[in-house]
Amino acid sequence: MKQTPRQQRASASTRYPAAGRGSSGWKRFPISAGAIAADLRQLGIQSPGDLVGRDPYGMYEGFCKLTGQRQDPCLLDTFIAAVRYMQGEPKKPWWKYTKERKRELAARELAK
Fold first, then answer.
1. 65: in domain
2. pTM summary value
3. Residue 6: exposed, middle, or buried by beta-carbon count in 10 A (0-12, 13-18, 19+)?
4. What domain range includes position 81?
């Protein structure tokens, strides 16, 4: 059964106790998002708990617009890994989402 965003946030607090404790939580975050915390802060994401309910594809597009340049697509993979983890999926390295990202972006391109 799919959880509501409120339930996901509550689950994130249990799953990752530092989820709501400000930027210091990034240091212990188990996905490589800890290395890109400054990028996430530019998107208004201050702590891991803020990732719950976010659209990683929208985050990536927003970051590209914010910086004025196309970012490495591996950043999108990292966003997917971080969001999915905070929504309760098992921890996976960012590169496990590369095939999914390529499929999704190809489907979006065809839909245009």
1. yes
2. 0.76
3. exposed
4. 32-111
